[in-house]
Each structure stands twice: as structure tokens, then as C-alpha cells.
């Protein structure tokens, strides 16, 4: 049996680690056992959802048809918003300590660098724009965290083979090495990947566009290479003419290289070392001016599609991550959007299960994340069309844009080597309270919360997002009436906990007061004395006022819970 995983396990140990199948009491029960939430799929999305629910006090059963974590790098680019979610789940520090942080990308055309860009050009954020971290590390840290929480039970080698639902719940038939057993659930979250068995069992499908192209992923171990931690993208490079190449640095001296191959490439042949090595050698001669020693760690040839299910909710079954939507790998929108699905779903399921919100709140999970998926699909499709032009006219346009982009900023807006993942601003959500007062800045209702440095009581320094509560949070700028509003809000019964944080321009004197050390909280949230901003449990803005009262705050919280 494999040794237990820990936060300091190395990549080889993680990829070899096997979880044991264990018989459970449900298999011997006279009647099907009932579970509040069953999550299917122990990838980054399913594990994040299970941890979030467990931290909110829910009991979660997590089923996986395998007994191992992923192998090979697979998803590697995890965005700032995902890291902030994982901070709340207790794994962000481990992810960032191991991962390679980066903000800068460079774009090349043929043999020439065109320009560089910075995805986080402003200071005052705890996390970088992205880290690169092999998916097996991400899964391992999440699995270790899940094992620490008493509310989560993980059953390996448990495959959902049958599903029925009615008004009372969901009935699941689960296959194991010892045969099938049956359980029931109040709700089921399908996080079982792009080939989702649950989607097939419900007779659902994903629709969209399949791209006729193939790409080679090669993980190459080159510990002696000292290139910066940046994203490098080549269009039509001399070492791989008429195609594209992408380079990312990963932990452990491993570099991720994506080579566009074309539709006619033979996947079996292209995975062979004798086909990969000449491509890597040529690329390194271009990047470093010399060949370097390296080892091939892992390789895969893939095609991809941009597609999604029409509806993410089907009764008591809710789809998240790749089971609900799929995008091209350019832009790192797959795993990142899946983790954001999990965050959106977790607090809503929790609120419904504890009776703090009506079932209609789960409908907003579907509508909000379908909106976000459409945004990702649009960006992903445009990137793929730019990277892989399918006609002479399209290529002529692309190449003209690339030539212009070296000297003209306007053309760089048109260059699309993969618009990198950003969280959706939920503009049209029915959970938002529309502005009644004029505000400046990007923190409109529906926007994800922005971080900023803050001073804490006792002279300590910290970060705003770390101070937000598990329920609603009210950011309240110090000024006339602020203290009385804070007291009134804290004294008012709320369906979910409300954390009130007073923001002051002076050193923080009390436990619920934060010092806006650099003025960035006020700047980013458009705060003036007496202003208030209400954040949902998933840290999206849902309401803001120049001068609020406790009744307005209460009404906005009810609206954010679909209670009005």
C-alpha cells in the first residue's frame, strides 16, 4: 500500500500513490442510506466543492471511479482568482509555495519577439496573476486537505452506474470491486470530467464546436535551464514553421511545451520520443542558442472542442467543471472556471440545505455559471481561430496583425494567443441589487472581490480577502453613521452570518476595523466616508451604497439568497 500523501510529497510519489478501496457500511444496509450531498469526481473541481461544503458544516460523500490522482501535468496554469478561492479552502499557501508564479508573457512571430505583456501590472495583491503547478500537485494538496476534514468521506473505486431522481431525491447505483450497492442523496454534484458518465446516464449531451487540429504536450525535465518564469508563445517559429508553440516553466525543473501539429498528424507516432526530441532540440536552439540535456517526463497528443451543456442543473443533479463545459487549453480557462463553478455552487447548496434559502437559489448557480461558460467559450473559440487560421484570408489577417503589433499598441488588442482566464463579472445576475448611487471603479454588482493590503489590530499587516467572512461581508468606510450602521447590522438576525468590516484611513483601533494602509481598498471599491459594499459568501459584490441602513442591507442579503 502506498505511503500517505502529505503536502511535501514529491511529484513521482504523488503519481504512484494508490488509494485503497474499502468496503463501507452503505453496502450492507438493509435500505439505501441517505446523504445530503454526493459529489462525483475527485479532480480539482470535485475536491474543491467537497472541501468548501465541509468547511461550511455540511457532510459530503465524494465518489471516484479510480484510485489514483492524475498523471502528467495536464492543467498547469492556475489563476489569481482560483488561488484566492484555494486560500479560503486552506491550500493556497501550499499551492503557491510549490508553484511557479508569473505575471509576464511574451509573444513571438517567426524568429522575433514582438512585445511583452503584464497580467498584473498593479501592486497591492497577495497572489500573482498565475502560478504554474502540475495538476497532480493541485489534486494532492486538495486530497490532503479533504482528509483533514471530518465532514468528507471519499470512496475510491466507486463508479456511478445508474441514476434516478424524483421530487424526494436522487437514487444512485454504485459499482465497486465487490458489486453494486444503492444510496440516495438530496443533491448530486457531477464533477466527473469531460466524458461525464452522469451526463450520459441522464441522456444529456454537450454541444459546440470541435476543432480539427492536434497538439502535442511534452513535459521536459531541464533543471539546468534558467529561463524566466514567463509565458512564451511563438507564431510560425523557424524551428516549427507554419505552426505555433507555447512554453511554460513548472516546478521541479520541468518545462511544459505545446506544439501545434495539424490535423493530419498521427497521435501514436507523435508521442514517440524520436519524434519529440528533434522538436525540443530545435526549440531550445532558438530560445537559448544551444542544445541542453533533458529528459522526457510525459507526453500526450490531444484535440479539443469548445462546448457546453445547455443547462447545468437537471433537478437535483448539478453539473460543474468539464462535465458541464469544455474549452481549448489556450487561456487556462478549463480548471480555473471549474473551481469557480465549485465556489458558486458550494455556498448556495449550503444555504439551501440549512434552510436559509429557497431551492430557487440553485437555479442561479446554473444561470450564473452558464453565463460564465459562454464568456469562456467565446474567448476560447476566438483564440483558437487566431492561433490556427483555417483559410488563406484568415492567415493573411493574422500575420498582418502580428506585424503591426510590434510597434502599435492598438494591434496588440487583436492578437489572441489565448486570452488568459479572468473571473466572470456576473452583470445580469438576479441576485444583484442595482446601484441607486453613483460609484466609480470596477467593483460593480456581480464583480469578484479585489484584494488589497490592510493593517490589522495590533499593528499586524494582512490582506483584505483573508478577512472576509464565510457568509456575507459588509465593507463599511468609516464616516458619519458608520458605527451605528455596523451595530445595527450586527444586531439584526440574518439567514447567513454577516461579517461587518469597517475600513479606516487611520491605524486600526479595534477588532472589526481594518486600516486601509495604501488607500487601495477605498480606490478599488470606490469608497467614500459612509459608503458600504456587500459581498456574497463567494466574494462577489452583490450591493453597494453611498449611505446604507440596516434595512437596505437586510433586503440585499435576502435578494442575494433568492428570497425576494
Rough outline: globular
CATH classification class of the domain at 11-99 and 132-207 and 306-378 = Alpha Beta
Alpha-carbon distance between the two ends: 53 Å
What is the CATH superfamily classification of the domain at 11-99 and 132-207 and 306-378?
FAD/NAD(P)-binding domain
Portion of residues within helices? 25-40%
**Which CATH-level-2 architecture of the domain at 11-99 and 132-207 and 306-378?**
3-Layer(bba) Sandwich
Largest sheet entry: 8 strands, mixed
Describe the structure.
By secondary structure, this protein is of the alpha/beta class. Among the domains are: 11-99 and 132-207 and 306-378, FAD/NAD(P)-binding domain; 453-560, Glutaredoxin (3-Layer(aba) Sandwich). 30% of the residues lie in helices and 27% in strands. Strands 1, 2, 8, 9, 10, 11, 17 and 18 form an eight-stranded mixed beta sheet that branches. Strands 6-5-13-14-15-12-16-19 form an eight-stranded mixed beta sheet, with helices on both faces. Strand 20 and strand 21 (461-463) form a beta hairpin. The longest helix is centred in the middle third of the chain and has 28 residues, at 360-387.
Quick overview:
The chain has 564 residues and is α/β, with parallel strands linked by helices. Strand 13 and strand 14 form a beta hairpin.
